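DEPOSITED CHAIN:
***
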Amino acid sequence: MLLEAKLVLETVHGPEKHTLPLDSEGPVTIGRGPDNTLSLPKGATVSRSHAIISRHGSSTGLIWKVKDNNSRHGTFLNGIRLKQSQHVRLRAGDLLTIEPFTFQVVNHDEDNRFTETFDDAETVGGTSILRVDRTQGGVALAQERLEALLECSRVIHRAEDEIAMADAVAYAASAGSAFSNVAVIRPVGGKRIEILAAKGRIAIDGSANISRSLLDAAMEGEPVRFQKAEIVDESAQSIMQYSIQEALCIPILIGTSVVGCIYLDNRDGQQERHSVGDDIEYCTGLAEIASLAMSNLKRLDLERRHTEERHGFLLGTVAALVSAIDAKDTYTCGHSERVAWLSKELATLLKLDPVTVEEIHICGLVHDIGKIGIPESILQKPGKLTDDEYAQICAHSVIGEEILNDVPQLLPVLPGVRSHHERWDGGGYPDGTSGEDIPLFGRILGVADAFDAMCSSRAYRDGLNRSEVLDELTAFAGKQFDPKLVQLFLQIEFVHYDVMIDFHVSQASINL
């Protein structure tokens, strides 16, 4: 079998220049480890063995395919992150990115000449990979245009919304074309539009000083171009009103639906800054990139909505569990909510990340769920507990862990539920762990739980005043409690906590 093309990887962006011919038996490995075929300098974004390029047979001969090798920061082909363990064919013109490097796949047999076409796409995990084919009939890729495409791809990799995506596309359209004015536009129903990003004389303030005639035509799904030499119909008032000399409007398609447009024009007094060949093909390529980005953003938005819905359902389930706990013992009405709030405040002072803070809050809500399995006569007993009754009380942390173990979304909180009665000195239950061997969630909840328990009145005693409770926490720091957490706990502002106490006391009196 013959090799389909003699391909070479050449650095077009990065701290070092590399050239890697793909002419060996393979596989070719890329990474920061010294044993790789292409060893890149050590950096935070390059894995030891980052990507593998291997030879495969096809109907036309031998071809090269690239695969991400479970790297942490990903391998990107033409702006799209490759899914792990998926092989994707390499072709001349492709841009392979392993941050901070971008390599271009070159076929020197074709003299580095190309024309851009966008009808050849390969699917990677449901996402089309844009291809740039090289033929003898094209012209060499201008460095300025290449840099614009690379910058556009890099920004789109990190774009979390359509505004950031549109800014990147507008920059690339302006930098890589002969037009001075650029806008990325989205239809929002009827004849209304939204300008997501703009450069030059086009305003984003809603005045929409663009050619609506060209925009309406492009909304039919095909690129539209206007040049001054052409006869302008009287209905095209915006072309005359804004003294437009030349304009181009490229639709952004998802499937057959027009979801936006890239609009470009030059006006009186504006000259073409340079000649870059056929802007239609270049901007059509940008529209393809924008289409992929918008499709991915819409998918991510849908996933976020599903996540929010699942999270709302989870919180509803947790609220029902908390209500069940409160119904078992009117003396501890609101205890779980207050412990959750105190734990969240302490986690925030500890400067934990927002996801962990939210997990600790949920852990506080469900930390006593195991008490559902304990008789009310024991929970509300005014006198001293027998040894057997005390053993049942001590079992609630393990019971709680077992109850929640079958809820996948609550798995992160299980260590805190189990360990919130452990002691710093090892004298707690159920496992007798000590110091930092106690899970962080358990140590945080231990302080918050003890504080609220001492502040609250129970069947067998009245609650202590605030200063007495804080003195107790300080006295037992390093014995029962993590001393660092106690010092942070003393910084909490208790205004909201006092409001919660008043509300829960009133609710408990109603339920009696």
Q: What stands out?
A: The first helix runs from residue 143 to 158. The two ends are 87 Å apart (CA to CA). Confidence is low (pLDDT under 50) at residues 110-141, 273-277. The chain has 15 helices and 18 strands.
